[in-house]
Amino acid sequence: MPRRKKQKLWVLKLKRPDEKKELQFELDFQSSLTTQQRFEMMFRQSNIIKEILIRNGYRKPFEIIKRK
Fold it and tell me: Is the pTM of this model over 0.70?
């Protein structure tokens, strides 16, 4: 199993809301990730959302549609 590098912690602290700084922070964070890390993060978040939807009863189960 390959070793994972320790990633530095990204935290943005602002005294007042600032959309430009928030956007720049997000862009800097995303650009620091590899493509593989971005996809892994996207799939992980997608699975979390799917689990929440299933737990709250909003995801339809798989169904087979028969054509006439």
Answer: no
